[in-house]
Model the fold of this input.
Amino acid sequence: MDIFNNLLLGFQVATTGENLLFCFIGVLIGTLIGVLPGIGPVTGIAILIPVTFGMNSTTAIITMAGVYYGAMYGGSTTSILINLPGESASVMTMLDGYQMAKKGRPGPALGMAALASFIAGTFSIVMLTLVAPPLASFAVSFGPPEYFALTFAGLTLVSALGGDAPVKAYISAVLGLMIACIGIDAISGVGRFTFDSMNLLDGVGFIGMAVGLFAIAEIFENIEEPIKQVFSDVKLGIMSLFPNRQDWKDSFGALWRGSLLGFFIGTLPGGGATLCSFVAYAVEKKVSKHPEKFGTGVIEGVAAPEGANNAAAGGGMVPMLTLGIPSGGSTAVMLGALMIHGLRPGPMLFSSNPEFVWGLIASMYIGNVFLVILNMPMVGLWVQLLKVPYKILMPLILTIAATGIFATDNNIFDMWIMFFFGAIGYVLRKIDIPAAPMVLALVLGSKLEMSLRQALTLSHGSMAIFFTRPIAATLMIVALLSLFSPLLIRLWKRYRAQLTAA
Amino acid sequence: MKKAEINTAIVLLILSGYVVWEASQMPPSATFGPGAGFLPFWLAVILAVLAAILFGSAVRRPATEKDQKAIFPGKQALLSIAGVMIGLGVYISLIEVLGYLLDTFLLVLFLMKVVERQRWRLSLIVSVCTTVGLFVTFQLLLRVTLPSSMFGF
Done:
């Protein structure tokens, strides 16, 4: 019953005129970002943070979350119509979606993408509603050792799951933690790595760094490899968008498998929407009675990844809201924004700011309805948007980013941070070092250090405190396993190879 | 890529050496558990280990097709990227001198005309629209005080 009361409270918050309006604006911008190649959800949210400062924190998070799950809807449109993913989570949708469009069935592909997104998205919010409160009340009892173990496990998981070169991801995370050390040490009051600059006493500005690493670096990458402009002249009536009975029958299994996989993998730090869509597509191909047809335009191949990436968006909110651990780049940026808004993300959020948490959750139900309405009848309009050339967008993105950075603190130094990390971010992309672990580490860094040092003070300097308390020990084992997983996998492969050779 | 990885590893090793040295200069804390230099010191040690692994695996593995390609793009694209960097750097330096409106207008014009080599007409239209649009959004709607020049705009 508690959940119903809470949800009711949430809907009261989410249905105020202002919150409804900004929920709509959020999903609208999200769809836009999803449709336009060359600007991803992380960039969109990072640029938007300064704009949300005038709002109260609930409206701000409603808007940012709208951008996040809205982008998952929008990305499918370009994948299906012009074989160009709007963002990385729609890459798998392209395989069968574009083939369906080529075979003269673009309507049902687009319709199924939107409806699968809606069904899986709503499913994951229901799961979020059910799973988050018990998890949060469990996590309230965490002390410094547990908190350190949790953050440590989050960081190692993100790095282990986030790409094919874990060493590089770990390097990124360690660099992020080092950057988090810059500024005045909160325990002893000593200035660290400030290079005698007044501006660095306060630490490196999170927004400047995130916008630099994502938005500015993305601009450089797009200059280097210009985005191809492809147009689609498909005419789509609204009735042609609805999948027929056979389509539904074919997609039913894909829908629920995609939803479940997306939600659960999405809750893992490092899970992320992209990984979820890959796994869902692979699973669907494996269980299918006709795996050879995948890639030739089967509707399950659209329903599974689209469902999974939207379910992941809901799943990703679970660790962020209950534990204060973001699951990837987009949620890390949102978490950073919440801290700037003066909230302390973590288990206490559910009891200290119920209107915030439940308002957000309720707004996601509403946002998903908005998105289906936006995406089904108006899909033709979104396709027209692709005619806006990137060369006009580039100066616009750059100046919005720069102005927004200035607006957060009226501080020109933050613009220099953006500039600096823009260059760093570009070089990191060139040498395949992922930026997400670094941003995550910066967001979590100060709390990680605080809890580490508090725990060691409690134990008079003995590391054993992390392994003698059951919850902390479990989390540390998870962390160590994921930390050494590349090594373990390699040893296992060598062992198997020896077995077959013998 | 192979060469880039080796260079990255060397840069990271130098960085971790610097952090170890800085951290060792920080005052130790006798009463309150580990001091200010504790985390940076161990982070630097971990970074050094990771850099060594990166170095070792880059040296040992056979060169792949990806290793043959230069990681940075051709001259043309590099010039454009340098153009954007310089434009942005000058923009940030001059924003308090020229004021937000003039500075932003000039940056967009520079990007359109010099970096992207568009026609004058399009460049001017985009510059004016972007500047006015941003000014209205931030200064008038969001009430941010944007920098102004000594002439008051």
Observations:
- The mean pLDDT of chain B is 86.
- The radius of gyration of chain B is 24 Å.
